[in-house]
Amino acid sequence: MKKLVKSNHSILPLLTISALLTTLAPSVQAESEAGGYTNYVTDSIEIPFRSQPGYKYKILRMLRSGSKVTVVEVNEDGWAKLLYNHRGEDIEGWMPSILLQAQPIAREKVADLEKKVAYVEKQLNQIKLEKQTLQSRFNETDESLKSAKKVNYELEKQLEEIKKLSGNAIQLNEDNRQMAQHIQKLENENTILTEQIDQSEDVVKRQWFLTGGGVLLLGLIIGRLFRMPGRRKWNTL
């Protein structure tokens, strides 16, 4: 233990942090997969990124908590061989695997959640604006619909009145047609009666003429028969 303290004064704080984070961070995968897998530096202070597995080796750089690294392998002592991409260049180094966790740190999660919340709020505001637009269009459409219903109701009333008037007109037309037929029938009957009357008058005139002629003839006959003989002159035979 004395040798460890002499080699590096940052071992005790790191061990303390590691012990604290052991209860919070999930277990890191012990065996490396083909091509490696992604882990994140635990949510704590900056962590030394060393050239070899061990606290005595050179610190290549300090990695901030939440830095994204690729786990290449994990040795028996619990040191993880990592690849850290710095400005497009992969840097190889070592770090205690206990300081790694499989999920991003809370700060990164919060930032990601904040982005998602901002996006959701933007979408929500857009939806609210669209809702207001749709509500305005709905109100306009509703007013137009009410006006159309009112006009339709008035037109239906006018149509009913027209139907009534049309019904009366049709009935009147039918009555006029029947009346015209009746008048025509009466006129025909009147014409026939007029002809019959004229014929009757001719018959009566002929009968009167014949009667008058008969009476005259009868009078002549009677006058001839009953004419008193004239006085004979004595000097005539």
Please write out the topology.
Elements: H1 2-7, H2 11-22, E1 37-41, E2 47-50, E3 59-63, E4 68-74, E5 79-86, E6 89-96, E7 100-101, H3 106-225
Antiparallel strand pairs: 1-4, 1-7, 2-3, 4-5, 5-6
Provide a short characterization of the protein structure.
The protein is α+β, with helices and mostly antiparallel strands and 237 residues long. It contains three helices and seven strands, in the order ααβββββββα.
Task: Describe, in plain words, how this protein is organized in 3D.
It is a single chain. The chain is an alpha+beta fold. The protein has a domain at 2-104: SH3 Domains (SH3 type barrels, Roll). 58% of the residues lie in helices and 16% in strands. The chain is built from three helices and seven strands. The protein has helices at residues 2-7, 11-22, 106-225; strands at residues 37-41, 47-50, 59-63, 68-74, 79-86, 89-96, 100-101. It has a five-stranded antiparallel sheet with strand order 6-5-4-1-7, with no helix packed on it. Strands 2-3 form a two-stranded antiparallel ribbon. The longest helix has 120 residues, at 106-225. The chain starts with a helix and ends in a 12-residue tail after the last helix. The model is unreliable at 1-33 (pLDDT under 50).
